[in-house]
Amino acid sequence: MKNKKRWWNVFVVLSIVLALTACSGDKQSATTPKSGGKTLNLLTWEGYADPLFVKGFEEKYGVKVTATYFGSSDELVSKLKGGGGNVYDVISPSSDVAGYLVNEGLVSPINLDHVPNYQNLASKLVDMNDVKKDGKIYGIPFTWGPDSLIYDADAIKDPPDSWNIFWDPKYKGKVTLWDDISNIYLIGQMNGLDKNDPSAVYNMTDQQLQDAKKKLIELKPQIRKYWATGGELNDLFSNKEVVLAVGWPLTPTTVNASGRHLKEVIPKEGITGWIDRLMIVKSSPNKELAEKYINYVTDAQTQKLVSDATGYGVANKDAAKYMSKEQAEAIHIDDMENYMKKINFWQIVKDRNKYNEIWNEVKAQ
Phi/psi of residue 69, each to 5°? Predict the structure, then answer.
């Protein structure tokens, strides 16, 4: 009788423990939706998977985010076409190839019902048609920025007003350009091709491309090196190897934090700029999780963290509410719509192979 009572007591205790565990489990799943320990694979630009803003998503949904970085739009396309379409879930192409990915059927449409933050993104960015097809949206604006003229204000006292300063003999060996075909866009602007038609610099004639090639070859004695990543450009300025560059807001923000005095200007010939969107690879097995990720990183508070990590402009205009005045001014979100009017944002380059041939010929000289 004693043994029977003892086992009955054990049974009661175990029943209570199991019931409490079940309740605890129900409560956890109700408050923190999990996604079964999945991994979300990103193919993205440098800095676009920083723990500063990615970690919160991982903790909220119980997933792991992994990232593979690419250094140019062409590298992104190459990775997707080379078998990466079966590996990656979310990509971050710039506006010169995003439309191409849509037309090639490499990305899936996004269900905006799952991305409510879309309604808070800057109209200039969402109104562009390059990622829209048959009434569907294939890309969500994430970050944006100018290809500014960046200079060392300790070495150059008067703010440059023209890109022609790159060819000034006094700065021989002190200039750096990105290793990318966007330098051809720059020469097109210098030649005034986009004054009446912004798309003209992205669809240059054979003669215009030859003119750009000649101009870029003439610049080569001035070039310290062609930088490949934002981090490399930062190092070139930090080590005082260069005083002039085409670059992104990331560089003044990062380098000046260590006491330097870099500035960026818009020359009289104008500037180009980029919009990096988040898109879902067509063969992704994690489309719903990918949409959750896109909505998470375009939330206003998360976008503030994105800017903290990258120094870039962000798409959600409400992010300014969480920024200091200095940060909002640095990324131009304080007057976003007006600042964007000064930028010729990258567009699809219809004959991209030809532009790449010209750029490779410049480097080979």
Answer: -95, 145
